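Case 382 in the screening queue. Each case pairs one protein sequence with one candidate compound; here the compound is pyridoxal-5'-phosphate. For every case the pipeline is the same: read the inputs, emit a complex structure as C-alpha cells, and attach any notable structural observations.

Predict complex for case 382.
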Amino acid sequence: MLNTYKRFPVEFVRGNGAFLYDVSGKEYLDFLSGIAVTGLGHNHPVLRQAVIEQINSLWHVSNLYESTPQENLAKELTNISGLNSVFFCNSGTEAVEAAIKFARKWGKGRYKIISALNSFHGRTYGSLSATGQNKFHLGFEPMLPGFSYVPFGVIDEFKKAYSDDTVAILIETIQGEGGVNVAPKGFIKELREFCDEKDILLIIDEIQTGFGRTGKFFSYQHENIIPDMVTTAKGIANGLPLGAVICSSKIAGSIQPGDHGSTFGGNLIAIAAANKVVELIDDNLLNFISKWGNTLMNSLYALDLPFVKEIRGKGLMIGIELEKNISSKKIAGLMLNESVLVGTSGDSVIRLLPPFIITQNEVMKFLLSFKKVIINLSGLIK
Ligand SMILES: *Cc1c(COP(=O)(O)O)cnc(C)c1O
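Case 382 output:
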C-alpha cells in the first residue's frame, strides 16, 4: 500500500456500539468514530437491517434511472436544511468539488472563492486549492487559480478579500482538521449578511460538523441562518461512502443535465443506510449530544490537568489544546495503550469525536484514561 498514512500498530476486526475489538479480541473505546463518521456507533441494528435488505435486493443502478430512495433522502435533507436540491457523490472532497463547480456555473463568469486560513476542504485539486493550509499544498503546486485565504472568524478580512469576480465564501463553522477552532459567535451571521449584500454564495462545509455532531443537525443551525449551499459526507451514512451537496433553488436553476455527474454517487446501499441515519438523528438525540458534550467539556475542565491549555468545541466535537512541547500524536498513542481511540488536529490538539450513543461509563473510562496518561507524562517530564 502506498505510504499515505502513518498507521498505529493495531487492527480492528469487529465493532459494537462505542467499542472496537482487535484481532486478539481486546476491547477499545472509540472516541474517534472513524473521524466523525460512525456517529451512531458500530454495528447499529437498525442500520445493519436496512443495509442487509438493500444488499439482498439491488446494489447499483446508474443515475440514468429514477431512484425513490435517493429522492426520499433528498426530501429529508432539503426539509432539514431549509434548502431545495441535492446532488449525491461519494465523499467529502467530491462534495466540495461539486459545490465549487455549481458556484462557478451560477456565477456566470464570477469564479473566485474566499476561504479561511487553517480550513480543510479535501484532497483533490479543487477542494485542496480551497484548503487554507500550506502544508497540504506543498509538493502539489500549482493550485487552481481563484482561491484566497483569510483569518478565520475575522469578518473584515473576508470583506477586504472580496472583489468583483468573487462568487462565494466557503467556510467551516468549526474548523475540524485545523484545530477544532469554533467560529466566534455572530461570525457566520455576518458572513451571511455580507454575501447577501454582494450577491455571492455562502457555502458551508458541514462534512465534519453535520449530521448531529455539534448538537444541531447542521452546525449553522446554531446561528439561525440558511446558507446557499452545504457540503456533507462523513457521518451521512454511518460508515458507507456517501456525500451530498444541498443547494438553494437559485443555484439549482443554473444546473442542467450533463453539467456534473458520478457513476457511484448515491449508491443504493449507502443511501439505504443514510435514510435510516436521518431518521435516527432526531431532536432527542440532538439534545443528548449537546448534554453529553457539555458534560464532557466541564469534566475535562474539572480535572484541571497539567499541559492542557484550552478545551473547546460544541456538542461531541471537542478539541483539547496541549502546551506547545506536548505532541498530540504522542498522547493519541499513549491513549491507544490505554485502549482508547482519540484523534488529533494538527501537532498540539487532541480531537474527540465520540459516537452519539455514549453512556456515563464510557465517559468515565475516557476521563480516567486521559487523566492517567497526562499525569504519568507529567511525572516523566518533571
Ligand atoms: C474530512 C473533511 C473533508 C474531506 O472529506 P473526505 O471524505 O475525506 O474527502 C472536507 N471538509 C471537511 C470539513 C472535512 O472534515
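Case 382 observations:
- The chain has 13 helices and 17 strands.
- The mean pLDDT is 97.
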